[in-house]
Amino acid sequence: MYNKQCEAPSKPQNKHNDLRYTLELTAYDLINRFKSLKVDELCALKLSLSYIYSTLNENMTNTFKKNAIRNDQVRDEVSKAVELPELEDSNIVSDILKKFARDKPGKNTALIIICKRRSKVLSTTKNMLVLEVLEVLDYVVCNLEAWSELDSENSNETDYILAVYPIMNILLRSKKTLTSRSVEITSLVTKDIREYIKKVFNIDSTTTTYGRKLDVMVVSNESKVPLCAIEWKKQNVDKTKLLLQQAKNTRVNKCHLSHILKMNLIESEKKQAVVTGMDWRGLNGYMFGVKKVNNIYSSVLIGTLMISTHLKLVEEFEDTLVLLLRWRVHLY
What we know:
Layout: H1 19-31, H2 39-49, E1 52-54, H3 58-67, H4 72-79, H5 92-103, H6 107-123, H7 128-148, H8 157-172, E2 178-187, H9 188-200, E3 212-220, E4 226-233, H10 239-261, H11 267-272, E5 274-281, E6 284-293, E7 296-306, H12 318-331
Helix pairs in contact: 1-2, 2-3, 2-10, 6-7, 7-8
């Protein structure tokens, strides 16, 4: 066992007076009161050491404000929203769901409505986007009862992954440039980063280095680069585990973005590069984006996600489905 007491870190020197320096100050302050840190401060420490400013959690953001980034203009810059591409036909989902909202059909009637609409599309326009939306709605309606019976005590993370992942798979499978992988897969990019850290800090270890385990990952078939890491926790998980997962997933997606920025991209592409991630708690979650701002990384909320568990709530699924469709466009 390694028992040698670590030396106290020295205060960062203001060599460049920029965002990177302010995050170093944040880390310095938090390390010096490490034993008394609350969980959101511990997560802020992990993120600041990775040069990430996160706005995903209010308490964590306040920690960044208090310790470093006090300038309103700078905060506005790192907190600027990530805009996903708009759909060419933005009304396509609402048009399909209008009949649900108007008629309030039962399960069997809803499935008949979807089946008739699909038959009409196949015999006329063969619009693939409409067919994909109808397939997602068919899957949702068929599984509403099962999802409503998911028990917060007895259901595990895999139960929720298996409920939501097919929706993503339906939306991604037609895109031959993308591959989605699910249930405890490893990010090789994070493995490379860990190996690099061992070399930088001269860590002499015979232990095999592994990448971060992820629940779902979307990968480019061409470059083999991860484009989105998605994590789950079960419905009744406590706040501490949620915050730790949030920090982990943010850092993983930052690793993926760092890898992308090292590729042969033109300057304008680098400035616009954004890696998306998702964190789920049961059937509810959110999507976030990680981008580079000057010489640090910023993590910002893109939108919330929810999967319906009752037919009366299917129309409320519209915003989630539209967001996932826009996310798909962003990925390729």
